[in-house]
Amino acid sequence: MSTPPRVVKARPVYLDLPRIRQPIPAITSILHRISGAILFVVGVPALLWGVQASLASPEAYDAFRAFMARPLVKLVSLGLLWALFHHLLAGLRHLFMDVHVGLDLGPARQTATAATIAAVLLTLVVAIRIW
Amino acid sequence: MVSATQRKHLVGAHYGLADWLAQRLTAVLMILYTLLVLGIVLWHGGLDHATWRALFDDNVFRVATFLFMVSLAYHAWVGMRNIAMDYVKPIAIRLSLQTAFIALLIAYLGWTIGVLWG
Q1: Most distant pair of Cα atoms in chain A: their distance
Q2: A18, A72, A116, B103: which has the highest count of C-beta atoms within 10 A?
């Protein structure tokens, strides 16, 4: 059996990442990864520490609340909360796509935009509430 | 002749479909747990130390929390391993990173047990 000659087209190689304008689903996707990694490295130990510190005693509970009220701690918490919101919403989008909801290009772009913006909006709502 | 099995990458995923499914199942479990905790807090109309402490003294909630952390560990392992497989090409560094991920996740689980039953 003869194999047909492989035609190699001279395709433009253009992989200067910062100069490629990524489509919105790609941005949502990379933020899903980044937010997941943030939750793994910072979010989980912060959560474990918080639960441990707040459970110890009524005094420790009050001390924990006072700690959480510091502006810098609030700011970091909001960052982690954004990571959680984005990861949760982008993940839900994946679950729907797995059951073939929103797979077409149009809806896929719309849900990617919605998830990304909603995560920021939810974080802003919490930010306004705690300040 | 090297068979497909022999060519398997040492630090590859090996179980693509099973991990893909596990990633989804653990995600759903974590969402359910999060809704449960949100529901409990809303039910109590906020939190104080006594309510918070009583919640963690309840064995059903302890087991649910532990299952949440086991789900999280598996979920994070699949995700972090995928990140390592996509961006870290030298096998020695990738393997070291993946080992560090596993060590960290086991530490998280140990910490969880300490918080829940310590």
Answers
A1: 81
A2: A116
